[in-house]
Design goal:
34% helix; alpha+beta; Neuraminidase; four-stranded antiparallel sheet; coiled coil
Length: 397
């Protein structure tokens, strides 16, 4: 029995070691390739410089000899004088050509090195994109084409809050987190229980040892992930069933300014899509543009970050769906919410603004808009109402 337990413990360790060894082999291969390329360049440059120097020395020696011979000629004769002048002109032109050739040789050398570095950069970017695709297990083949309809499920709570389902296959429970600062979760057996008039009496109250801040929390794989109140950028992982803090992490660069200008209570907005857990926030260094961070929910560690062109100004919320950020904008006084910036982390060159996706039949503002990858719906909190939006998607081109 002891041997069997040791065997099970060793398997993940061996797999981790093998994975690390594979990445080390790839890095070593890349370094060898770079070293060989630069060695080849250095040899070619050395030969080129040597050939130029030998040619210049040979020409100058020949020029001295010609000038010495011409000095001894009788320049009084008109024919000889014309020949001498012609030769002197040709020598002068040739000298200028050599000086020019030497200068452009240096420029071409630099250009060749820059081109090689550019090729190397493109190679590294291609390898990084390949790594990201493997990390994200990118299998999404559809994009958001529109928001078809809405359903106001309930109206409970104040202006700020969030409600959600765990997107796991067997999860039907509904969770309500009311207020921008609080430490109690309300858990309902299903959405029908939540919709009943006396729903708060049937809710299971789950107290948190550390309160939350903002409305950017998510529930994923049985854990609540949220921004800890009073901290700059601490994210807490809370086990709902065991009622204890499972882990914590700091999100670099986050927490100094609101993620969205029109929702200043939220500094860090967490999101879940088909690829797992994400964090959205804004930074002063990006001019207030939104930053996307992929988080490993098991290790509670940053996997990768992207600076986006999507501004936090006049933004009220955002959500991730199929590796793609969708930012919801509105007016400060509240109006028709609309998605005006879309950013695919695997196809950043095709980030675009003003796609013309409006939220239907509603005037007001959103405190949160979160995507549920299982139901392919948006769970939103708008002016105290809990809303579900159905989505219209289309195949990626």
């Amino acid at each position: 029995m002891v041997a069997l337990q040791i065997h099970f413990f060793l398997i993940p360790s061996l797999l981790s070691t093998m994975g690390a060894a594979q990445y080390m082999m790839q890095d070593a291969t890349l370094l060898r390739y770079i070293d060989q390329r630069f060695l080849s360049l250095e040899r070619r440059l050395e030969k080129c410089n040597q050939d130029v120097l030998e040619y210049v020395d040979e020409f100058r020696e020949f020029s001295r000899m010609v000038l010495s011979r011409l000095a001894g000629l009788n320049t009084d004769k008109a024919e000889v004088k014309r020949e001498v002048e012609n030769l002197l002109t040709r020598i002068e032109h040739a000298q200028r050509d050599i000086d020019y050739f030497r200068s452009v040789t240096d420029s071409n050398t630099c250009m060749e090195v820059h081109e090689d570095l550019l090729k190397q950069q493109l190679l590294e970017e291609a390898e990084e994109k390949k790594r990201l695709k493997v990390m994200l297990n990118a299998s999404c083949d559809h994009v958001l084409a529109g928001i078809k309809s809405l359903k106001v499920v309930k109206k409970t709570g104040g202006k700020h809050g969030s409600w959600m389902k765990d997107p796991g296959k067997k999860h039907a429970k509904i969770y309500l987190l009311s207020g921008p600062v609080n430490n109690v979760i309300l858990e309902f057996a299903n959405i029908m229980t939540f919709m009943e008039n006396n729903q708060t009496l049937k809710a299971r109250r789950v107290p948190l040892p550390l309160p939350w801040e903002g409305t950017g929390h998510v529930i994923y794989q049985g854990f609540l992930f949220y921004h800890r109140h009073g901290s700059l950028n601490e994210i807490v992982k809370f086990n709902i069933q065991r009622r204890n803090v499972a882990d914590q992490m700091l999100l670099p660069g986050a927490g100094r300014i609101p993620a969205y200008q029109l929702s200043p209570q939220t500094k860090i907005d967490l999101a879940v899509d088909e690829q797992g857990l994400w964090a959205l926030h804004a930074e002063p260094e990006t001019g207030g543009n939104i930053v996307i961070t992929k988080i490993n929910p098991v290790a509670m560690a940053v996997e990768h970050s992207w600076d986006t062109p999507c501004s936090s100004k006049d933004a009220e919320a955002a959500f991730m769906a199929c590796n793609t950020l969708h930012v919801v904008y509105n007016s400060p006084s509240g109006g028709s919410s609309r998605i005006q910036c879309v950013y695919d982390v695997l196809d950043a060159l095709n980030a675009y603004t003003n796609p013309g996706l409006h939220f239907p039949k509603r005037q007001g503002s959103h405190s949160t808009v979160h995507y549920n990858p299982k139901d392919k719906q948006l769970f939103a909190w708008g002016d105290g109402s809990q809303i579900i939006y159905k989505l219209h998607t289309k195949q990626k081109v």
